[in-house]
Amino acid sequence: MRRSLRLAAILAAFAPAVQAEEFTWAVNTDPQTMDPHAVNSAPVLGFLNNVYEGLVRRGKDMTVEPALATSWEPIGDGEGWRFTLRQDVMFHDGAEFTAQDVLFSYQRASDEVSDTRSWFSPISDVVVVDDYTVDFMTSAPNPIFPGSIANWMIMDSGWAEANNTALPDKENGNYATLNTNGTGAFRVTAREPGLRTVLEPFEGWWGEAEHNITRAELTPIQNPATALAALLSGDVDFINPVPIQDVARLAENPDVDVIQGIEARVIMLGFPHEAEALKYSSETTDANPFSDVRVRQAVAHAVNVPAILQTIMRGNAQEVSQLVSAAMQGYVPALAERPAYDQDRARALLAEAGYPDGFSFGLKCPNNRYLNDEAVCQAITGMLAQVGITATLDAMPVQNYWPELRADNYDMYLLGWSPGTFDAEHPIRFLAATPNEEKRLGSWNFGGFSNARVDELLPMIQSEIDAAARQAMIDETTKILQDEMAYVPMYVQPLVWGTRSNIELTQRPDNFFILRWVTVN
């Protein structure tokens, strides 16, 4: 008996002990809102994926898997999609989840005041069949629709209406801006914008917990050095991102781990295609040079992307020539080559366009949204100046940046885009389609780029079932965007996360941090 007890004690000592723990993490951009339909940005959607859920979600390998829907199937011959909903699901306040919440969330997320309305451009109608069955009718066959709504989150219709938040209000805010009521694995228990957000596990969650967290706290730390110091001291368990220049030093520290990967996000330069004149030029006040494709091509040749990747990104990023990376569906290998760095060619193109002496303009850039974003813009400013294009750089926090772009207060801007569907159709719909509120297209096409053939091809890309035929359409669209230099894609942003060595987590290429996959050892 005594021997058995001793053996049991030995086995227990070597058994993996998973105790409940608190967890803290820091990011450089605080979520702008807690409303899942108000702002279509990665900091908001990535965080809220821990609190709200959609009909489907993406797993650790980015495959689409069931969430609030247990299954889905096409209706008829491409007429739409039928979703069978999960039963016995509760919202955080105890309310029951039903098809009415799906219908309400569709109406809310697709409203003209919602930043997510473009997600539903293929939808002609939503029909509640019964409490746990919903049909999404499409205007044409749409084989990629289920995956396209992986970040669409369902709200409780009763809670929203009771708190006067039936529609999102990203400008002025409402109850849903600071408060949440999802069905997800975690619930928000404290929200102080810019300071901290506290989450605790939702005991009534329908899923099986893979974490051991009892409490999690998010702290926004804009200064990279301060975030790194917090990680090294143990004040936080995880930071995103790790400053590129500190990766090698951090990797040698036994108390921390560096997790590196390549994000799905393409960093690019955007132009004011439809503007009649520059807004921030000291001498070119009656014309818009960027409306000439030769000027946009000059910019592409003047920016030394390899130098940016080597000096600012320390070799951790990849060049790109398209709006998606090589890892995305629809990427065109035959169009992989990007414009060569060639100052002479850039000057010649400017002269051909009527600007032999160049011109001045205003470049808008965030300073806390993308990895080393302000440093990249500073480098671009210097490179453009060498060919006669003189930029006045205005870098600002991201919460001020998006309103500036939507108000057309720029002459050129920096943008990063991660396709939520991991498909080339996504940036075509959001960035390249002619802006059309009625059709819910081009909602992030700030500069108003417009091409009739791209607009013609998009609905065919969305509805084509034959993979080869669909890819041929994407090929043609990609070629048009390159020829027109609609944007200047530069590189795919690297992912560099830092954790304490006792933390286990999963890094996804969409840069979404999922708490339910975190273990504190």
What does this structure look like?
This protein starts with a helix and ends with a strand. The radius of gyration is 24 Å and the shape is globular. Helix 9 runs antiparallel to helix 11, helix 14 (425-432) runs antiparallel to helix 15 and helix 15 (452-463) packs antiparallel against helix 16 (467-484). 28% of the residues lie in helices and 23% in strands. Strands 1, 8, 9, 10, 11, 12, 13, 14, 15, 16 and 17 form an eleven-stranded mixed beta sheet that branches. Strands 4-5-7-6 form a four-stranded antiparallel beta sheet, covered by helices on one side. Strands 2-3 form a two-stranded antiparallel ribbon. The chain has 16 helices and 19 strands. It has helices at 2-14, 42-48, 99-109, 145-148, 157-162, 175-178, 224-233, 247-251, 293-302, 305-311, 343-352, 373-385, 398-406, 425-432, 452-463, 467-484; strands spanning 21-27, 56-58, 64-66, 69-75, 80-85, 123-130, 133-138, 186-192, 196-201, 213-220, 238-240, 256-270, 318-319, 359-366, 389-396, 412-417, 487-500, 503-504, 519-520. By secondary structure, the chain is of the alpha+beta class.
